Amino acid sequence: MTLAKLMSDAMKRKLGEQLGVAEIVRKQGWGAVPSRECGNLVREAIRMAEEQLKP
């Protein structure tokens, strides 16, 4: 299953805003986001998930 299917649209939009790719997504969709930025998005999503799991 892909990250896009696991994450909510709201979470993806929030991360896109944080990483500065929201405009690309709005105009062209997630497929137009450079792979480096997609990797950064995944890294940030993992970091956020780990923070939520901390006691």
Structural summary, described in words:
It is a single chain. This protein starts with a helix and ends with a helix. It has one domain (8-53). By secondary structure, the protein is an all-alpha fold. α2 (9-19) crosses α4 (35-53). The longest helix has 19 residues, at 35-53. Helix content is 75%, strand content 0%.
In short:
With 55 residues, the chain is mainly α. The chain has helices at residues 3-6, 9-19, 22-28, 35-53. It is 75% helix and 0% strand.
Main sheet characteristics: none
Helix-strand pattern, N to C? HHHH
Considering DSSP H and I runs of 4 or more, what fraction of the residues is helical? over 70%
Number of helices: 4
Question: How much strand?
Answer: under 5%
Distance between the termini: 27 Å
Low-confidence stretches: none
Structural class: mainly alpha
Radius of gyration: 11 Å
Query: Total strand count, please?
Result: 0
**Total discrete domains:** 1
pLDDT averaged residue by residue: 86
Characterize the overall form: elongated
List the keywords:
4 helices; mainly alpha; 55 residues
Give the secondary structure arrangement, pairings included.
Elements (H helix, E strand, L loop, with lengths): L2 H4 L2 H11 L2 H7 L6 H19 L2
